[in-house]
Amino acid sequence: MQPEAVAALEKMGRYLRTLKNFTVHGDSTIDVVTEDGQKLEFPGTIDYKVRAPNGLHLEMKTDRKQREIFYDGKTLTVYGPKNKLYASTDAPPTISALLAAIDDKYGIELPLADLFLWGTDRAPSSALTSAVFVGPARIGGSVTEQYAFRQEGVDWQVWIEAGEKPLPRRLVITTTDDPAHPQYASTLTWNTSAALKDAAFTFMPPKDAQRIKLVEVDVAAAQEASP
């Protein structure tokens, strides 16, 4: 546990919590492990528009799936552009509360959710079992410092921009409690002074869209049933 690595993570978290209006684009890859153990990689993109504390729009695109999530501080809407189906439900008043509620109630975990958890008591450094400074690196033209961390079930790396804006520029997460060790990786591009309007966070259903119900799940039972 190198103190400078823990300090860098905490500094990044504090800075992220100061951001009020921002967008972040992620060029991502995710590993999917087949039943016979073969690991497949799927590329995709993630785009967030965020207005703290109660505005969020997420657009996820891969060759296999597209999803949009709208949140305006009162209502959460999940929309599938390909099949024109959407579901809406009442939502808590903050992004932080939203993340916990939709995970517990609907089993929905947003990609790169750590961007909203670092610097809060939901991402304590006490959960780390290892923290190491790897060295300097350049990501997308930005000078960064690479760090490697470990905690139960996960190894992860983050490349933090050097200087006064310690933004995470790349994130790699390896699931260690799966024998195949699947990875998720994303390289991030930020705009920390985005001009965002209310309409960005409000879902307006297309004329041919059909509303469905967002079904609650028993997360604990699902975890017990999984192999």
TrEMBL record:
Keywords: Protein transport, Signal, Transport. InterPro entries: DUF2092, LolA/LolB/LppX. Pfam families: DUF2092. The keyword Zinc-finger does not apply. The keyword Isomerase does not apply. Monomer. This is DUF2092 domain-containing protein. The lineage of its organism: Bacteria, Pseudomonadati, Pseudomonadota, Gammaproteobacteria, Lysobacterales.
